[in-house]
Amino acid sequence: MAVRVRLFAALREAAGTDVVEMAPMPLAELLAALRARFGEPFCTRLEAASVLVDGDPAPRGAAIDLPDGAEVALLPPVSGGARRPAAP
After folding, report:
1. pTM for the whole thing?
2. Strand pairing of 19-22 and 3-7?
3. Where in the chain are the domains?
4. Antiparallel, parallel or unpaired: β 3-7 and 71-75
5. For 11-64, how does the pLDDT look when each residue is reduced to its tens digit (9 = 90+)?
């Protein structure tokens, strides 16, 4: 098996794919490998992204080992929708 990395929105666009399979490794190493693989603008967008491991938020500095079968989701910040103009 492998670690499944799911990419959303701007990260998906920057990488050109929505799913990447990676070998099990610590989260910090996985993020570094993704940066090296996809370059800019992926790297810039990743800096502001939320990271979830198996559905739970993962603090950036946390030492998390990713075992076989783990799923990492990378979500860019959600921007607010456009406001409707006030009725005259």
Report:
1. 0.85
2. antiparallel
3. 14-59+68-75
4. parallel
5. 999 999 999 999 999 999 999 999 999 999 999 999 999 999 999 999 877 899
